[in-house]
Design brief:
The structure is a single chain. The protein contains two helices and no strands. The longest helix has 20 residues. With 102 residues, the protein is mainly α. Helix 1 runs parallel beside helix 2. 34% of the residues lie in helices and 0% in strands. The radius of gyration is 14 Å and the shape is elongated.
Length: 102
């Protein structure tokens, strides 16, 4: 796993704008697609892994909804955004292995 001390100034963290245009909101601005959301999640995880206070984080918006929440892991029809959820699964596996080794 690549380690870095500082977040890339050009990247977004999962807490500030990890969304992308979707069928429900095709005009949403943010990251270009769900794969980019997955990469963004991984970049945020890398920054946090070496912090002694970090135990994990909660993803607030499980399902995208019409109330404007663009943070969903699933679309409004209960289908996961696979490029995002597959990336999150892999990042979490690597993070768990990293923390177990330290």
């Amino acid at each position: 796993m690549r380690r870095r001390q500082e977040p890339d100034p050009g990247s977004r963290s999962a807490d500030v704008g990890n969304w992308t245009p979707t069928e429900l909101d095709p005009h949403r601005e943010g990251l270009p697609d769900h794969a980019a959301r997955g990469a963004d999640y991984g970049a945020a995880m890398e920054v946090l892994l070496d912090e002694p206070w970090f135990a994990g984080w909660h993803w607030c918006g499980y399902v995208e909804n019409t109330g404007g929440r663009g943070w969903g892991l699933k679309d409004p029809w209960d289908e996961p955004y696979r490029p995002l959820t597959d990336a999150i699964t892999e990042h979490n596996r690597r993070a768990a292995a990293y923390r177990k080794g330290n």
